[in-house]
């Protein structure tokens, strides 16, 4: 089935990419290279974004198999994930209580 | 950060990932107490690092089950509408809540887990009852095509099952997402029983689908913490890598260890962690 395959590929790619970036970042960190934090941050972002990519992959897969209710469901999930980023940035701009 | 601290954090990650794989959990219940007790992290910082690592364990473990077609992708996606909504609320609350409250809540959760581990270690084997998993679907379940089947190797056949009580399942999933993001854990402890006992999903399919959902739920919380600036990047790398290594190792030795013994050790460790968390909170 298309859905399972698309999801599987997205998950595998994200895991490998973030693990590599973490390794490189830690290695640079040991030698005191400043760029290490940026590399680790990139790894973190890829890791955390991966589940979102798999939700987007699922939207396409559901659409191609004409499961419209499930397309809506996947969009709702995506909405909350994006909302989370927005709220995070929003909280950053106001002083913490 | 000095290499020695990185190494220690890597070890914490490996232990958390290893136990996580053995017990089907995210490992946050090990990461958070260790970061606060041994590395002097504040609880909010520890929660943020933990939730990112939980994303790592879930992705690594989940892809295997998806490949083996044990995961119910449609059911997972459906319940994620509620867990992500819960995660947004939970992460928001964690940023705003006083730390002492979070310490005590974490302590209570650990005590509950510890006791349930110690109590259930004798009766592991009353799970698969294949005949009862087909019944009448509700409307949502039918429209979304949530009912499914999976190949059960131990039983040597395909197990068909009907998903029921979708609305109650959604409400329970919202709470699971809230607790997950607020305390930096995967929340499989809640999701698995919800699917298995409430929604009529066989245990193996419930575990696989829970693992699959944890990634999206945890990343929703993690995204908020990351955008807010609470994630300590230096700590994330060794802990998340350790978790990935430990989880991989854990899955391959799981069958060789006695489940009762694992639960006993794990239960006692959690009890010790619970004590420390509550001391910090009061």
From TrEMBL, chain A:
<dbReference type="Pfam" id="PF07843">
    <property type="entry name" value="DUF1634"/>
</dbReference>
<dbReference type="InterPro" id="IPR012861">
    <property type="entry name" value="DUF1634"/>
</dbReference>
<keyword id="KW-1133">Transmembrane helix</keyword>
<keyword id="KW-0472">Membrane</keyword>
<keyword id="KW-0812">Transmembrane</keyword>
<feature type="transmembrane region" description="Helical">
    <location>
        <begin position="6"/>
        <end position="28"/>
    </location>
</feature>
<feature type="transmembrane region" description="Helical">
    <location>
        <begin position="35"/>
        <end position="62"/>
    </location>
</feature>
<feature type="transmembrane region" description="Helical">
    <location>
        <begin position="68"/>
        <end position="91"/>
    </location>
</feature>
<protein>
    <submittedName>
        <fullName>DUF1634 domain-containing protein</fullName>
    </submittedName>
</protein>
From TrEMBL, chain B:
<protein>
    <recommendedName>
        <fullName>Probable membrane transporter protein</fullName>
    </recommendedName>
</protein>
<feature type="transmembrane region" description="Helical">
    <location>
        <begin position="101"/>
        <end position="119"/>
    </location>
</feature>
<keyword id="KW-0812">Transmembrane</keyword>
<dbReference type="GO" id="GO:0005886">
    <property type="term" value="C:plasma membrane"/>
</dbReference>
<comment type="similarity">
    <text>Belongs to the 4-toluene sulfonate uptake permease (TSUP) (TC 2.A.102) family.</text>
</comment>
<keyword id="KW-1003">Cell membrane</keyword>
<keyword id="KW-0472">Membrane</keyword>
<feature type="transmembrane region" description="Helical">
    <location>
        <begin position="171"/>
        <end position="190"/>
    </location>
</feature>
<dbReference type="InterPro" id="IPR052017">
    <property type="entry name" value="TSUP"/>
</dbReference>
<feature type="transmembrane region" description="Helical">
    <location>
        <begin position="46"/>
        <end position="66"/>
    </location>
</feature>
<keyword id="KW-0813">Transport</keyword>
<feature type="transmembrane region" description="Helical">
    <location>
        <begin position="260"/>
        <end position="279"/>
    </location>
</feature>
<feature type="transmembrane region" description="Helical">
    <location>
        <begin position="78"/>
        <end position="95"/>
    </location>
</feature>
<feature type="transmembrane region" description="Helical">
    <location>
        <begin position="7"/>
        <end position="40"/>
    </location>
</feature>
<keyword id="KW-1133">Transmembrane helix</keyword>
<feature type="transmembrane region" description="Helical">
    <location>
        <begin position="210"/>
        <end position="228"/>
    </location>
</feature>
<dbReference type="InterPro" id="IPR002781">
    <property type="entry name" value="TM_pro_TauE-like"/>
</dbReference>
<dbReference type="Pfam" id="PF01925">
    <property type="entry name" value="TauE"/>
</dbReference>
